[in-house]
Design a protein that fits this description.
By secondary structure, the protein is an alpha+beta fold. The protein contains eight helices and 17 strands. The longest helix has 20 residues.
């Protein structure tokens, strides 16, 4: 079987380009010194061989000589190729501006006492152009083995989506909603910085829409976040055995048990304490534990007065008749209000009828 030769190419040019094409790849060209490469005004021609971009021609009509393709000549000599005929690829790259759409779903960082993660939809577009044709061809046609303009666009779209999803995951939903413009600006800056490493420049990145679910919007509002937390506590409590028990330890990685106990306290009419905070029994608002009254509804956040059991020393509500730990009966001592003469349980600081200091 005889040896096959590719036909010699006298000239090569990208005449069939359309406005949406970023690049065009001429595969397996057999050129010789004296062949011509014709490059249009908004194009580059990049000589490509063995996964590497070698020489770049700008706009014009170029006759190939050993003088105007020094990198290619050196590469061929290193491969031991002798003569005036050589095989390579020529990739034409457009210098025009392109638009690429992006969009997808992302999740925010865990937020609040229930570690809520909101699903956020996003879509927009990117305006970009090739800045460094040699780096661009090396990255896309060499390292990523792209074959067509669609391959390049698909990679850029995936690249943008990946960066947005990753960066949104660093912000909780409250921060994201309240600082949306600032957050998207930071994502855009990150995209532009990383795009430069692959040879193209981001001219503009526009987020046309950010879709936040109704649940997430409720969570962002102060009252809504408390309602969601209380609902979570109720749902968690419903799967726990009475009184907690050993089975409760595994629910919610320990969160379920603590919240179930908090819910139990809340149903008894006591303010719920959560790590330096107090949840109002009336409206569910989270308050600093230094507050005496709820900042949302004005309800008292003071704990009910307590008495110490004379037998075991446990602290119990002053209204208890028996100790909840050892069952010892308490001798109830009532305090008479000096103003209205109402009887008050021991431990009260103010009269339950008129508010006079006892």
């Amino acid at each position: 079987m005889g040896e096959e030769y590719l036909p010699l190419i006298e000239s090569v040019s990208w005449d069939t380009f359309t406005p949406d094409q970023i690049a065009y790849r001429f595969l397996d060209l057999s050129l010789r010194y004296g062949s011509q490469v014709i490059v249009r005004e908004n194009q580059w021609a990049v000589f490509f061989r063995d996964g590497k971009a070698l020489d770049v021609f700008g706009p014009g009509r170029h006759t190939i000589t050993s003088n105007n393709i020094p990198f290619l000549t050196g590469a061929l000599r290193a491969l031991g190729i002798i003569g005036d005929i050589f095989e390579c690829e020529v990739i034409f790259v457009s210098n025009s501006q392109f638009r690429g759409n992006f969009g997808g779903q992302a999740y925010t960082a865990p937020s609040g006492n229930i570690q809520y993660q909101a699903e956020v939809g996003f879509h927009g577009y990117l305006l970009f152009k090739v800045e460094d044709p040699k780096l661009f061809v090396t990255e896309f046609f060499g390292n990523r083995r792209s074959q067509t303009s669609d391959d390049v666009k698909n990679y850029i779209r995936g690249f943008i989506n990946e960066r947005v999803i990753d960066d949104f995951g660093h912000y909780d939903v409250i921060t994201l909603v309240k600082n949306l413009d600032e957050t998207t600006d930071k994502v855009t800056a990150l995209i532009a910085d990383e795009a430069a490493r692959t040879g193209f420049r981001v001219i503009d990145s526009v987020f046309e829409g950010i879709k936040i679910s109704e649940d997430a919007r409720r969570f962002v509002s102060n009252v809504g976040s408390q309602a969601m937390m209380m609902q979570y506590m109720k749902e968690t409590a419903s799967v726990l055995p009475p009184g907690g028990g050993s089975a409760a330890v595994g629910v919610g990685a320990g969160i379920g048990l603590s919240m179930a106990r908090q819910l139990e306290q809340a149903t008894r009419g006591q303010p719920t304490e959560v790590k330096g905070q107090i949840v109002c029994k009336n409206c569910g608002m989270i308050n600093p534990d230094t507050n005496k009254f709820c900042g949302n509804c004005g309800n008292s956040l003071e704990k009910p007065p307590t008495v110490k059991c004379p037998k075991c020393g446990a602290e119990m509500p002053a209204t208890n008749k028996f100790c909840g730990e050892c069952g010892t009966q308490f001798n109830q001592v009532e305090i008479e209000c000096s103003k209205c003469k109402a009887k008050n349980p021991q431990g009260n600081k103010f009269c339950s009828e008129c508010g006079t200091t006892l």
